[in-house]
Amino acid sequence: MPGKASKPSIKNEFTAFKTNRIVEVASHLFYERGYSSCTLDHVAERLGVTKPFLYSYFKNKEAILAAICEVGISESLSVLERTLAGEHADHRALLAEVVRQVGRIVIDRQEYVVVYQREMKHLSAYLLDVSLTYLGRFAPTRTEAHSLQLTELVLAGFERLSLEITTPKHPERRAGIVACVVPAGVDYGVLAARLANEGVLVWGGDGRLRISCHLYNDEADVDRLLEVLPTALATA
Fold first, then answer.
1. Where are the alpha helices (DSSP H) in 34-139?
2. 178 within 8 A of 214, measured Cβ to Cβ
């Protein structure tokens, strides 16, 4: 029914408003006092709420700091994507527009930007906790099976490209990494840079090219690697 469908939307908007308000006030306090000197009691007092109210929206103070940092980053990336998608007379005009748009965000979100640059060092423990919590949702056997499935695809692709593979082919002797010898005459540094420009990150050393298959990768990532690798090898 129309009446019932509208309630969740209003509730979500109200929740977003309260969350944004917490982030806004906390950003101002972190900017004024510094992250270490500011407590959740200070944030609650400025908002006129209780500390348990804050915990109903954020796990802890670091989670609020993460949200503050995300504001500046997400807005900058959004503006950058829109600017790059637009039409410009030349590269100089594009660069000028990027500087203008990002500069506007820096001015409009000065407190967020300063807090991000000055306080992001406090996020390491929080981000590790979030990452471990996320990974904890997946059984180790499932994670291993996923990685091995992707390495099978990488191995098959390397074989089609006639690359010298140094990774054991037997699944029981293989981890989530596939390595091959960098072909003679190919500069690894240039190769890695070419791939990075195409959105593919690799690592190497000792004349080897190594591909790591992680939980967050999928078959589309492997397809992308195998699509751009031949050209990267030919031009490196």
1. 40-47, 51-55, 61-85, 91-108, 110-119, 124-135
2. no
Secondary-structure breakdown of the chain: helix, strand, coil percentages, each rounded to the nearest 5 = 70, 5, 25
Q: Which residue has the tokens 């929206």?
A: 57
Mean pLDDT of 124-149: 71
| The one-letter amino acid at 189 | G
Beta strand 208-212 pairing with 203-205: antiparallel
* Partner residues linked to 211 by β-bridges: 178
As a whole number of Å, the end-to-end CA separation of the chain is 61
3-class SS at 175? Answer: coil
Residues 179-217 pLDDT 10s: 999 999 999 888 988 898 888 888 877 788 999 888 778
> The tokens 């990027």 sit on which residue?
98
Q: How far apart are CA 28 and CA 30, in angstroms?
A: 6
C-alpha torsion sign, points 187, 193, 197, 202 = positive
In angstroms, rounded to a whole number, what is the distance separating the alpha carbons of residues 51 and 64?
Answer: 13
Residue type (1 letter), 48: G
For the beta carbon of residue 50, count every other beta carbon within 10 angstroms.
12
Least Cα distance to 51 among 76, 26, 32 occurs for 26
User: Which amino acid makes up residue 28?
Assistant: H
In what order do the strands lie in the sheet containing 177-181?
177-181, 208-212, 203-205
* Predicted confidence (pLDDT) per residue in 78-124, tens digit: 777 778 777 878 878 888 888 888 788 878 888 888 888 888 788 77
Instruction: Measure Cα distances from 51 to 20, 32, 55, 57, 212 in Å.
Output: 16, 20, 7, 11, 43
DSSP code of residue 182: P
